[in-house]
Amino acid sequence: MNGSPIDARNQLNPITLIVVVLIIFVVLFGVYLIAKVITDYKKSAAYLERQKQKPTKIDAVNETAKIAHLLKEERDLLWRICKKHPTPNLRFLLRDPTTLEPFFREEFDYLDETDNEKGKSFLFSLRHKIRDFFTPTENMNSSRKIAVDTELTYTASRGVHYKLKLIEKQPDTLVLSLPKAMIDRNDIPKPLEKIQLIFIHKSGNAFQMDTRVVRYQADKTGSQQMFVTHSENIVSLQRRQMERMDIEQPCLFASVTVKTIDAGKNSKIEYTPSENQHKGTLLDISTGGCRITTTMPIKPEQFIFIRGKLNAHDEDVAIGTIIRTTKRLDGLFILHIRFVKIELAVENRIHALVCNYTEPDLEFLS
Questions:
Q1: Strand-pair category, 161-169 with 234-237
Q2: Is 172 buried (19+), middle (13-18) or exposed (0-12) by CB count in 10 A?
Q3: How many angstroms separate the CA atoms of 303 and 34, rounded?
Q4: pLDDT tens-digit profile of 74-84?
Q5: Other CB atoms closer than 10 Å to residue 205's CB: what's the count?
Q6: Of 169, 302, 310, 333, which is most buried, counting CB atoms within 10 Å of its CB?
Q7: What is the value of pTM for the model shown?
Q8: Distances in whole angstroms, Cα of residue 149 to Cα of each of 27, 68, 199, 296, 299
Q9: Buried b (16+ CB within 10 A) or exposed e, 34-50
């Protein structure tokens, strides 16, 4: 005998071993297939769409608040907006912060109807932080990526900013519409001249592009168009802390007398505008300051009072300081102003204007 019955039982039959190995392989292969099906499904458009449709939960809001350093009031406001619109999933919306704009706009309309200026202020600061922390960095390396209808800013030699719109992309050129003011002032660059154009991507990122004028041509309606070469010489510009809007509308300004009222710890600065006001043109504005053109060569480092209408209902005022003065080739002076005293309601109206939540009042001041 070669061995005892006990030894025989302890020896594994080769066929049994093969069966066991096959079973293990089938089980592992089955697990792999199930995992692959789940992984592929999670990558599918159907799964992503289902996730997008899930209501936002408070943990997603708290996570967002931590990343963007939201104040309690801003976080609570974001949660209220999410509860008003239970369908969108915040984690997916934040991949493109511009998708939140309709919800911010609706909330602004509600706060505006109830005259809740503090609420509007928290809304605009929330919007700014969301866009600042979650806007993806764009890699813009060719003018062929610029979307049709994008506005491009051209600064003429006189220091005037003009808005040109991209109306067509051709294989070798970009076709831009010319604003009437640019033509009337004969402020157009010459053919073959190198120029710089600044544009803002839909994400909010700003870029500067070097290009060259090819020719000018009128369309079927007689409107003048400028053809410029495509360019790969595009650089990203640092994003402004405060969004700015080109506006070009009349305003009034005056000098300011500054007096410090000393009352111990409660001392304050009193600003008294002069009754002698002068006409100027507001070129652009943000909550941090503005630029005004005037025929007067006013020196910098002076306080200035500005009065104008940012909408059809309110007359707005602010106190600022002139940080520098530049002279254009047409003889006008540009005052670069930083606000030092501005009411919250006026700040909110500037925010609303810059965000395109309201329209500017374009009527001349009397």
A1: unpaired
A2: exposed
A3: 71
A4: 999 999 999 88
A5: 17
A6: 310
A7: 0.70
A8: 57, 31, 11, 37, 40
A9: eeeeeeeeeeeeeeeee
